[in-house]
Design a protein that fits this description.
The complex is a heterodimer. By secondary structure, chain A is α/β, with parallel strands linked by helices. Chain A has helices at residues 2-25, 41-60, 80-93, 105-118, 146-159, 173-185, 207-214, 230-240, 256-262, 289-303, 309-328, 332-341; strands at residues 27-34, 68-75, 98-100, 122-124, 139-141, 164-170, 192-199, 221-225, 247-249, 270-273, 345-346, 351-352, 368-373, 376-379. A five-stranded parallel beta sheet of chain A has the order 2-1-3-4-5, sandwiched between helices. A four-stranded parallel beta sheet of chain A has the order 7-6-8-9, sandwiched between helices. The N and C termini of chain A lie far apart (87 Å). Classes of the chains: A alpha/beta, B mainly alpha.
């Protein structure tokens, strides 16, 4: 009796050994490092949910080239140290063919080198320009460049006759990079930055700093550059201080939850963003319209929450990776080459055309200036 | 510095300060009856805000707040009954680790329950852009709410500890536990009560501050650190000193912005904590002989 059970165990072991590699050989492993929790969860949450939904759709439709996709999401909590260890784990242990994410620029910059050395493509969902400038062989990103965002903001300011501004930024990678871009580009556009302050990403009240910049009577407009919930707090504190200069935000404002958090104080905020937020108002026949409407409908019916541009960045990262894998199979170096060859691929952020020098693939027209009216995002059409 | 700017900084400082003071008082109430620091104190503030936001669709604002405070008090009592009550003379270190564990547990449970998004209660009066002018400075009426509610809580607590028999029994536990037992006071129930009390005031603070600062599952830790700093600054166990220390820290933080960049705000709080621990470990308002008698 005992003999037989031992034999049985051995048989099971042998069988499982035979089955496991066979099963895994048939799936394509895609990794994702996203800030699902923590201060950047506004980004990572929708991104993770978007990827799960897309992978489900792909697998339901038969996978990529007949192979099922296996998605491995790691929650970094926006912590660069965690992102580093997850990057190594995904590359070395899980042997994924491509990694999507991270959600934040700070994390992406920390793990850039690891992907270069391992020769694994990384398609980041973070926005800072430094991620792809200078170009790293294996690192791509889907959100629009922050220099384009800064340019768009300055162009709008000029139409309003604004020349002296205050800059506020969160102390995240995205905030710091944005502040640098604003200060660098301002003189070229004939704009002077008279006040610049950086605040902690976890700040819950900024009324003191608002009081400080408000005391400078030269300030004609404020630009706030962050991805954290403090965006809503800046708006509230400014309006509470009875200060009604125009408030510009970065493309990090593209989540309707920030508008809800700021309530009446969000009215009139102007910011550049992808067309996802105003998909319904796009003219029929716009190359992005059908895709945006489809994504928004699928996301909102599945998760019962409004789609945001951040989920869109993950959507774009996924379709870019998928398009490359369809041509290259599971060879990591070939996938990289195929991403560079992608031309005119419509995504949520714009129409992607990558080249060897441009690992972002979007131009300035991918941005639309958007404002908040009655708690909704609408295209900005002058004051 | 103009009068207007001065008043603006002052109100910002008093708002932070009042909230820090309430968290510090929560620390002190539990410290007094048990001799431990309850690092889950910040989570009570978080729970107050989050529960009231969840209840809001079903009932009027003030009812939601009242129910949220009651539920958080119940939660505080449950924590004590399940994890602390049955321990026989636990060591300080063990208790600290238990409360840190409870804090992490609560936070993770909140993450699964409410998700990662930030929410807030509506403003009690007006909305996000309503302002009141005081000496040329403009502040939100909610700031006045925070200051008034925190002030009333402090008043209520001091009356409670001075004038009611339950309050005096709790004070007796704090002064000498064994003597209190000999006088027939059920010290275990007093400990449960102290957890309920500090959970209740934390939750109420969490509700009134929610419109200004927003509530999220992870706001507890930051508040606990600030509240701890204030409790140490005032002298552990001294609730009235915590009010002074809280306002002092809040105002210092607010005014520091006019001299050093905003990003250094938290560094200032931590620097003060370290300085106090080195120079006056018994706190600004505490006495060193009294501190010498305490376990830590």
């Amino acid at each position: 009796m005992k003999h037989r059970s031992v034999l049985f165990v051995i048989a099971v072991l042998v069988l499982s050994l035979a089955i496991i590699p066979a099963a895994s050989a048939e799936t394509i492993k895609i990794g994702a490092i996203l800030a699902v929790t923590g201060p950047a969860s506004f980004l990572g949450g929708p991104e993770a949910r978007t990827l799960e939904m897309l992978v489900e759709q792909t697998n339901a439709a038969g996978g990529i080239n007949g192979q099922k996709v296996e998605l491995i999401i790691k929650d970094s909590g926006a912590n660069p140290e965690k992102a580093i260890s997850f990057a190594k784990q995904l590359i070395e242990e899980e042997k994924v063919v491509v990694v999507l994410g991270p959600s934040t620029s700070g994390e992406t910059m920390k793990i850039k080198k690891i992907f270069e050395e391992a020769g694994t493509p990384l398609v980041s969902c973070a926005a800072a320009e430094v991620i792809v400038n200078p170009v790293a062989q294996y690192v791509f990103k889907t959100p629009q460049k922050d220099s384009y965002a800064a340019q768009k903001i300055f162009e709008t300011m000029k139409t309003l006759g604004i020349s002296k501004i205050a800059v506020l930024a969160g102390n995240t990678g995205f905030g710091k990079a944005g502040k640098e871009q604003l200060i660098k580009l301002a003189p070229e556009m004939g704009i002077t930055v008279v006040e610049a302050e950086v605040y902690d990403a976890k700040s819950t009240d900024l009324s003191a700093v608002v009081a400080k910049i408000k005391a400078n009577k030269d300030v004609q407009a404020v630009v706030n550059w962050s991805i954290v919930p403090a965006q809503a707090i800046v708006a509230k504190n400014m309006r509470q201080a009875g200060w009604d200069v125009p408030l510009f935000q970065s493309h990090g404002f593209g989540n309707i939850k920030y508008v809800e958090a700021a309530g009446a104080a969000a009215e009139g905020i102007i910011f550049p963003a992808g067309r996802l937020l105003v998909a319904e108002q796009l003219p029929t026949g716009h190359p992005q319209k059908a895709l945006l409407m489809e994504y928004i409908a699928a996301y909102e019916s599945k998760y019962k929450e409004a789609a945001s541009t951040f989920g869109g960045h993950a959507y774009d990262a996924y379709i870019v990776a998928k398009a490359a894998i369809e041509k290259a199979g599971t060879d990591k170096a070939k996938i990289r080459d195929e991403i560079e060859k992608i031309k005119n691929l419509p995504g949520t952020g714009g129409i992607f055309s990558f080249t060897a020098d441009d690992h972002n693939g979007l131009d300035i027209d991918s941005f639309e200036m958007i404002t908040v009216k009655d708690g909704q995002f609408v295209p900005y059409k002058g004051m | 510095m103009s009068v207007e700017l001065f008043v603006q900084y002052l109100f910002a400082g008093i708002t932070y300060g009042a909230i820090y003071a309430i968290v510090a008082i929560g620390f002190n109430i539990i410290y007094n009856t048990t001799g431990i620091i309850n690092f889950a104190q910040g989570e009570f503030v978080m729970l107050g805000g989050m529960i009231s936001i969840s209840l809001l669709p079903f009932m009027p604002l003030y009812a939601a707040i009242a129910l949220a405070v009651l539920m958080t008090m119940l939660f505080g009592a449950l924590l004590e009954i399940c994890f602390i009550r049955w321990l026989e003379s636990p060591g300080v270190l063990r208790m600290i680790i238990i409360t840190i564990g409870l804090s992490i547990l609560t936070r993770e449970a909140a993450l699964h329950l409410w998700g990662e998004s930030i929410r807030s209660l509506p403003y009690f009066i007006g909305d996000e852009i309503t302002t009141v002018a005081i000496l040329g400075a403009r502040i939100s009426p909610q700031v006045l709410w925070v200051i008034a509610v925190c002030g009333l809580m402090v008043l209520f607590l001091s009356v409670f500890f001075q004038a009611t028999s339950v309050g005096r029994e709790m004070k007796a536990c704090a002064a000498n536990r064994r003597a209190a037992i000999l006088c027939g006071i059920n010290t275990r129930n007093m400990v449960t009560l102290s957890f309920m009390l500090s959970a209740g005031i934390g939750a109420l603070a969490g509700c009134v501050m929610s419109p200004i600062t927003s509530s999220g599952y992870d706001i507890g830790t930051g508040l606990a650190i600030k509240g701890f700093t204030v409790a140490i600054l005032g002298g552990l166990g001294n609730s009235m000193a915590a009010v002074g220390a809280g306002l002092l820290l809040g105002i210092l933080e607010a005014f520091s912005i006019s001299v050093v960049p905003l990003a250094f705000k938290d560094a200032i709080a931590i620097t003060i904590l370290l300085l106090i621990l080195f120079v006056r470990p018994h706190g600004l308002f505490g006495s060193s002989t009294a501190a010498g008698l305490k376990e830590f």
